Amino acid sequence: MAEELILLDFWPSMFGIRVRIALAEKGLKYEYRDEDLSNKSPLLLQMNPVHKKIPVLVHNGKSVCESTIIVEYIDEVWHDKSPLLPSDPYQRSQARFWVDFIDKKLYDAGRRTWRTTGEEQETAKKEIIEILKVLEEQLGDKPFFGGESLGIVDVSLIGYSCWFYAYETLGNFSIGAECPKIIGWAERCSNKESFSKTLPDSKKVFGFVQELRKKSGLE
């Protein structure tokens, strides 16, 4: 029986991007439905009645919610190709730690670089550099966080890279100057077809952020 996969998502979402990349890495075909988050579809509200958020993966009529849980689900169900989590339990725990670090730290700091001004924005800029420097230290001299091949940490972090241009332009700072290893890592990831075909254009994301700023009265 053919697998029915539907992804409810929103194109600039760094959380949705990680799911799209996981699906691409596994070579899975799916139906993509871009949600209007100001007018959520009945299917989204039905499939994620608790949080009512994207992304949601609908697999043969059953929903899986929360991006990291979805990525792990994809990796477990389609385990025969491009494993994203290490087989060793300790290494797997470490990978999960860093995904959790990214989710708890990076989204909020990044958001404040474009949603705030003045002292609050300056604090956010310092925070995002500090967070990325910690991640650089973890990356070390490896090509990817997963080592020689991509892993769940790479998949979880890369969605932020297409937001870097907006963070830098609106915050008037340079991630590349402060964290060159992260930029080099992002470029290596982007050389992979599953990433290059999935990641939105940075300038398009910047345009989207500008619209959000206008609606918030920041421009």
From TrEMBL:
The listed locations are:
Cytoplasm, Cytosol
Q: Does the keyword Nucleotidyltransferase apply?
A: no
Give the superkingdom in one word.
Eukaryota
Q: Which UniProt keywords apply?
A: Cytoplasm, Detoxification, Transferase
- Which GO BP terms, alphabetically? glutathione metabolic process; toxin catabolic process
Q: What is its EC number?
A: 2.5.1.18
Catalytic function, reaction form? RX + glutathione = an S-substituted glutathione + a halide anion + H(+)
Q: Which GO terms describe its molecular function?
A: glutathione transferase activity
The reply to whether Transferase figures as a keyword in the UniProt entry is yes
List the transmembrane segments: none
Q: Where is the GST C-terminal domain?
A: 88-218
Record domain GST N-terminal: where: 3-82
What GO cellular component term, any one, is given?
cytosol
Q: What is its main location?
A: cytoplasm
What this protein is called in its record is glutathione transferase
Species lineage: Eukaryota, Viridiplantae, Streptophyta, Embryophyta, Tracheophyta
